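Reopening this ticket.

The earlier resolution said the output was attached, but the attachment link was broken on my side. Pasting everything inline this time so it's all in one place.
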Amino acid sequence: MLLALIGAAIGALLGAFVARRRKGSMTDMLQYGAVFAIMFALAGLFLTIFIVRASG
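Inline output:
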Protein backbone atom coordinates (compact mmCIF):
# COMPACT_ATOMS: atom_id res chain seq x y z
CA MET A 1 0.00 0.00 0.00
CA LEU A 2 2.99 2.25 0.50
CA LEU A 3 3.76 2.35 -3.23
CA ALA A 4 0.25 3.64 -3.93
CA LEU A 5 0.67 6.49 -1.43
CA ILE A 6 4.09 7.39 -2.78
CA GLY A 7 2.70 7.27 -6.32
CA ALA A 8 -0.18 9.55 -5.38
CA ALA A 9 2.16 12.11 -3.82
CA ILE A 10 4.58 12.07 -6.76
CA GLY A 11 1.68 12.22 -9.21
CA ALA A 12 0.13 15.23 -7.49
CA LEU A 13 3.41 17.12 -7.57
CA LEU A 14 4.12 16.16 -11.17
CA GLY A 15 0.60 17.11 -12.27
CA ALA A 16 0.82 20.53 -10.64
CA PHE A 17 4.23 21.05 -12.24
CA VAL A 18 2.90 20.16 -15.70
CA ALA A 19 -0.07 22.52 -15.32
CA ARG A 20 2.17 25.32 -14.11
CA ARG A 21 4.57 24.80 -17.02
CA ARG A 22 1.60 25.12 -19.39
CA LYS A 23 0.71 28.47 -17.77
CA GLY A 24 -2.39 27.08 -16.06
CA SER A 25 -4.36 28.70 -13.28
CA MET A 26 -4.64 27.34 -9.74
CA THR A 27 -7.69 25.26 -10.65
CA ASP A 28 -5.77 23.75 -13.57
CA MET A 29 -2.95 22.80 -11.23
CA LEU A 30 -5.40 21.22 -8.79
CA GLN A 31 -7.14 19.25 -11.54
CA TYR A 32 -3.91 18.04 -13.13
CA GLY A 33 -2.58 17.17 -9.69
CA ALA A 34 -5.68 15.14 -8.86
CA VAL A 35 -5.69 13.26 -12.16
CA PHE A 36 -1.98 12.47 -12.03
CA ALA A 37 -2.30 11.41 -8.38
CA ILE A 38 -5.06 8.95 -9.27
CA MET A 39 -3.10 7.55 -12.22
CA PHE A 40 0.12 7.11 -10.24
CA ALA A 41 -1.72 5.67 -7.22
CA LEU A 42 -3.37 3.06 -9.45
CA ALA A 43 -0.01 2.21 -11.00
CA GLY A 44 1.49 1.86 -7.52
CA LEU A 45 -1.41 -0.33 -6.41
CA PHE A 46 -1.00 -2.68 -9.37
CA LEU A 47 2.75 -2.79 -8.77
CA THR A 48 2.15 -3.66 -5.12
CA ILE A 49 -0.27 -6.44 -6.07
CA PHE A 50 2.23 -7.83 -8.59
CA ILE A 51 5.07 -7.80 -6.06
CA VAL A 52 2.98 -9.49 -3.36
CA ARG A 53 1.71 -12.19 -5.68
CA ALA A 54 5.14 -12.82 -7.21
CA SER A 55 6.81 -13.20 -3.81
CA GLY A 56 4.51 -16.08 -2.91
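Reporter confirms the inline version is readable. The helical segments are 2-21, 26-55. The chain has two helices and no strands.
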